[in-house]
């Protein structure tokens, strides 16, 4: 039976509509995987000699144990962001004469084959073997330690699913958990109460008494059982498989009324952003990226190259523009035929999108004013970048949008999500970023800083003045491409 | 009102639609029937300029649909769930469509009031997004949204599918009421021969893209259609 379930899984992967289309992306991911594999493996092999060399006098095994807890917490963090329990495709199996327990076990065991579980092995096993070779501890004791570590990793694997299931719908409930971790982390950092040291001492005990390795193994078994029971109880259409129906948020965005005939479109876009996971997260990311400047402005080594600050300025004021704009009109892919068949002139549709992005650039520009702390030049550059974004980059992005053919699922998280990505997204990045830097660099180099600033400002203003015409041009282009877009958005590619 | 001339659509060498001439006068209600793959949805999609004809043209009130967008202001349609916006509540969706058709909130509310029976208390005021409604209820929303703003042309693709019996009967009444006024051109496709002969004054049968029958509905039409669609069976017997 397991064999059959695996063959189903295999087919679903190779027969998916997107396999051929995104093969380039797969290769890229393959390179990433290879890179991490090699990096972890070298780290695992080199860990023992490295500790001997840089921390002489330390017993490497004890030294490593001291940091295991920190690693586990980090692991939990990135697993929480990136890893999902593959549960959605068990629905068709519910009607077939397969025992529940079997399907549930299949889902759980399949999750063990995740790349996230493979990486720690690359450190644990070489490091363990190195220790056996060095002979500081008995072979059996090291094997017990390795078993304990694998048990802990897998506990994190299943613990993450429990956390995810209970908290994804209710992110706020996660705050106490994060707070506890933060408090323990701070206490640790200030050496008031070092949880990680105590945890490490516990692991050291395993080397004295190998039987203690059973504890992590038991924790793992407990988490596995818990997941199993939980899934079995939820093995009904109306439980986890069908998303919980939440009370609709009926915020009206009435203030958009003042934009007259563009109001319905703006309202729709705001609701789209506010009520769907992927665009919503995009907004949060944009706000986080406001802090991007701190990395560069405080760093003296960039002060020689003001052109670099143009890059930062375009990025800070335009991060929402880039993240949101590059997928226009794929955000509306789910109802694109409606947009095309209803009484919606393309010109108005595009003007509304441009308006929304303009507002975002203005808001981000205002929020970035505290960078005045780093000097008025920085502030001035950011403001000019905002004008350039509004005038020149918005029409460029809208134009690039007419090449979009890939649908976006609004409900998926944007982390590590390449849905909707195509060659367009990579190519459009160049003119957006490189052009303003180049223009500024030339004027700054051969005339003066002020000339560079003025050049960008004038270009931005020109773009604003000719926006109507630019949008008219883009609308023509959309009209030509609309059949291909409708066709493309119908495909449910990843 | 609607004229198609020399209309063909060819996908990779296969002709999926081939209509030499079809003329639908203003105020007529036309039913489109045919088995799967007959070209019904293809025809509707071309009429809405969602796909491009390989040859020929469609005129909607003398406007070439692929060249001018003016027809959009008096044409409304519901083809499938890609005409719904999943993250809106039914009310918001109706108001949005209303906005696009120059109907204010009060106009839309007044119209919705006349569909209270049709909604059967399952649509309005439920604080649910469209994506969370059942297929049948989604269809109800789509159909009613297509009636907002006094359109001159209404296109409904399989409106009876997925509806419960009570709603089917109510929908028939709604369509009959509209056709009785002789002001609106309605195009409907359906697999249900009884329903469609009941509400349409003219039935057009498509078979693998070809227009094979064009009948004005009479008492004999249902029989004729049933004989036509069972001909494969009788031939085998």
Structural class of chain B: alpha/beta
Helix proportion of chain A: over 70%
Question: How do the strands line up in the largest sheet of chain B?
Answer: 6-7-8-3-9-10
Low-confidence stretches of chain B: none
Strand segment tally of chain B: 10
Instruction: Choose one word for the global shape of chain A.
Output: globular
Number of helices of chain A: 20
- Which chains have the largest interface? A-B, 29 and 31 residues
Instruction: Specify the number of helices of chain B.
Output: 9
How big is the Rg of chain A?
27 Å
Describe the structure.
The complex is a heterodimer of chains A (494) and B (237). With 494 residues, chain A is mainly α. In chain A, 72% of the residues lie in helices and 0% in strands. Chain A contains 20 helices and no strands. In chain A, helix 14 (306-325) packs parallel to helix 17 (376-401) and helix 17 packs antiparallel against helix 18. In chain A, 32% of the residues are buried. Chain B is of the alpha/beta class and 237 residues long. Chain B has helices at 40-47, 90-100, 105-113, 116-119, 135-145, 165-180, 193-199, 221-229, 231-236; strands at 2-11, 14-24, 29-33, 55-60, 63-64, 75-78, 153-157, 185-189, 202-207, 210-216. Chain B is globular, with a radius of gyration of 18 Å. The chains are: A mainly alpha (494), B alpha/beta (237). Chains A and B meet through helix 11, helix 15 and helix 20 of A and strand 6 and helix 2 of B.
């Amino acid at each position: 039976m397991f064999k059959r379930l695996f063959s189903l899984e295999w087919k679903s992967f190779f027969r998916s509509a997107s396999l051929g289309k995104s093969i380039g992306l797969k290769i890229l991911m393959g390179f990433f995987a290879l890179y991490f594999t090699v990096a972890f493996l070298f780290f695992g092999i080199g860990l023992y000699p490295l500790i001997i060399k840089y921390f002489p006098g330390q017993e490497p095994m004890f030294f490593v144990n001291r940091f295991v807890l920190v690693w586990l917490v980090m692991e939990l963090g990135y697993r929480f962001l990136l890893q999902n329990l593959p549960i959605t495709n068990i629905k068709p199996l519910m009607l077939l004469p397969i025992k529940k327990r079997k399907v549930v076990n299949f889902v759980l065991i399949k999750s063990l084959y995740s790349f996230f579980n493979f990486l720690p092995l690359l450190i644990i096993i070489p490091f363990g073997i190195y220790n056996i070779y060095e002979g500081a501890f008995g072979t059996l004791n090291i094997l017990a330690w390795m078993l304990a570590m694998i048990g802990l990793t897998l506990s994190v694997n299943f613990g993450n699913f429990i956390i995810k299931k209970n908290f994804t719908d209710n992110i706020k409930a996660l705050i106490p958990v994060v707070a506890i971790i933060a408090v323990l982390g701070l206490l640790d950092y200030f050496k008031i109460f070092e949880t990680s040291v105590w945890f490490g001492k516990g692991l050291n005990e395993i080397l004295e008494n190998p039987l203690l390795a059973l504890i992590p193994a038991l924790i793992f078994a407990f988490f596995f059982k818990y997941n199993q029971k939980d899934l079995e109880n939820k093995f009904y259409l109306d439980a986890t498989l069908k998303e919980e129906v939440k009370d609709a948020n009926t915020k009206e965005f009435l203030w958009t009324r003042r934009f007259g005939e563009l109001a319905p479109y703006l309202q729709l876009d705001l609701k789209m952003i506010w009520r769907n996971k992927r665009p919503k997260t995009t907004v949060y990311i944009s706000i986080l990226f406001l802090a991007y400047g701190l990395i560069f402005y405080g760093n003296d080594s960039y002060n020689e190259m003001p052109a670099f600050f143009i890059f930062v300025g375009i990025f800070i004021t335009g991060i929402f523009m880039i993240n949101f704009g590059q997928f226009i009109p794929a955000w509306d892919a789910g109802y694109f035929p409606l947009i095309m068949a209803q009484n919606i002139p393309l010109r108005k549709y595009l003007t509304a999108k441009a308006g929304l992005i303009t507002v975002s650039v203005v808001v981000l520009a205002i929020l970035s004013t505290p960078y005045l702390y780093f000097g008025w030049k920085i502030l001035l550059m950011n403001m000019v970048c905002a004008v350039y974004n509004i005038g020149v980059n918005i029409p460029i992005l809208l134009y690039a949008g007419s090449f979009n053919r890939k649908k976006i699922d609004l409900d998926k998280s944007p982390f590590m999500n390449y849905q909707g990505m195509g060659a367009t997204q990579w190519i459009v990045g160049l003119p957006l970023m490189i052009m303003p830097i180049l223009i500024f660099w030339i004027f700054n180099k051969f005339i003066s800083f002020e000339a560079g600033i003025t050049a960008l400002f004038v270009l931005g203003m020109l773009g604003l003045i000719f926006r109507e015409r630019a949008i008219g041009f883009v609308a023509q282009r959309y009209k030509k491409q609309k059949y291909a877009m409708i066709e493309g958005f119908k495909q449910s590619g990843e | 009102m609607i004229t198609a001339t020399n209309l063909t659509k060819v996908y990779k060498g296969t002709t999926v639609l081939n209509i030499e001439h079809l003329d639908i006068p203003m105020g007529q209600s036309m039913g489109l029937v045919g088995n799967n793959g007959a070209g019904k949805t293809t025809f509707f999609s071309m009429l809405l300029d969602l796909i491009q004809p390989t040859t020929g043209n469609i005129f909607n009130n003398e406007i070439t649909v692929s060249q001018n967008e003016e027809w959009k202001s008096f044409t409304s349609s519901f083809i499938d769930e890609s005409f719904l916006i999943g993250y809106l509540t039914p009310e918001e969706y109706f108001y949005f469509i209303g906005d696009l058709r120059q109907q204010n909130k009060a106009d839309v509310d007044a119209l919705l009031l006349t569909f209270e029976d049709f909604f059967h208390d399952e649509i309005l005021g439920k604080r649910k997004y469209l994506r969370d409604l059942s297929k049948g209820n989604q269809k109800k929303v789509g159909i009613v949204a297509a009636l907002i703003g006094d359109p001159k042309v209404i296109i409904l693709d399989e409106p009876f599918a997925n509806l419960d019996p009570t709603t089917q009967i109510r929908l028939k009444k709604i369509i009959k009421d509209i056709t009785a006024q002789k002001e609106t051109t309605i195009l409907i496709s359906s697999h249900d021969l009884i329903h469609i002969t009941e509400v349409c004054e003219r039935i057009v049968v498509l078979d693998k893209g070809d227009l094979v029958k064009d009948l004005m509905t009479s008492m004999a039409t249902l029989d004729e259609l049933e004989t036509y669609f069972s001909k494969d069976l009788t031939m085998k017997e």
